[in-house]
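Justification of resources, computational component.

The compute hours requested in this renewal are based largely on the per-chain cost of generating structure records like the one below. Each record pairs the submitted sequence with a full structure-token output. That output is archived, and it is also reused by downstream analysis tasks.
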Amino acid sequence: MVQFNFLCNMGGNTFGKLFSITTFGESHGEGIGVVIDGCPAGLDIDPQKIEQDLQRRRPGQSKVTTSRNEPDSCSILSGTLNNKTTGAPIALWIANTNQQSKDYKHLEHSFRPSHADYSYYAKYGIRDHKGGGRSSARETAARVAAGAIAKMLLDHYKVTIQAYVYAVGSISLNETSAIDYTEIEQNIVRCPNKDIATSMISAIGQIKKAGNTVGGIVKCEITGVPVGLGEPVFDRLNADLAKAMMSINAVKGFELGSGFEATRMMGSEHNDVFEMNEGKIVTKTNYSGGIQGGISNGMPIYFKVAFKPVSTIMQSQSSINTEGENVQLEAKGRHDPCVVPRAVPIVEAMAALTLADHLLRARASKI
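The structure output for this chain reads:
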């Protein structure tokens, strides 16, 4: 007899309040999609910009990513007319064309270490073992597509978002590293320093040959943010950015502004002193990362996002099956040895969705 767990309806598929998205689809289903609600009418939509961001996220793009080769072409199903938004919900669809579900057959009754397999199964009593189903990072393609539209809205207000790979394992940029933003899309690891990028690529290659994986850090910088985004208590801008970043697969940490380095500083060192500059109130330093009291202060917002090593490794691991028996698992399929190069556009997308929502909320808060 089939039992239904009526207390475990899946929620949490919607993000945002005024500018909101709801994603749907599974890794090895027919495709992935998203519905955007609350986008103002009259916004110019450039489908090519959506495709560009999807190509930055897509699998199979280089030797340091999974070899799954999805074209990730996006179709706009509703909400636009002659490439302008109508104010109606915008539906985007990305077909899955390169699934290899047979690679996951041996996992139908086993739980992979550090994956969502066990926790999902324990909560719902059922799970899609093919590529992780809804828990797969494949879902982030929908976020990137929606984030591209959020970026178009932010462009209207001259807000720009730039993310890049800050670290891979122990190889990292530092405060004295030369940064060249034009270099980010010129190398396959998306690091703004050519020499450090070369070291990162070499390290990922060696780790991949050993059948292992490595984590890293993505840094994001946002400029042009107006003063006043965010609320002073539960809907702080920094809190919503943290939630957005922590919702991304494999993220283990979020650090705004000075982050944990602030714990080593005195208040006299860390305080951002105000001054006037060309008729505007600014701060001499920006340890706050552009947000004070949960509200943007007009300075650039910057933060780092920590990604763990990908959980699927090409080595034998012990685990448990659904009967509680010990099993040995041998990974099959196509997986990233390091997720951070493909995570760059995902971080940008979630930042854009958060800021677009807060921007519209700030506009609605005043007569």
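The domain at 14-364 is CATH 3.60.150.10 (Chorismate synthase, AroC fold). The radius of gyration is 21 Å.
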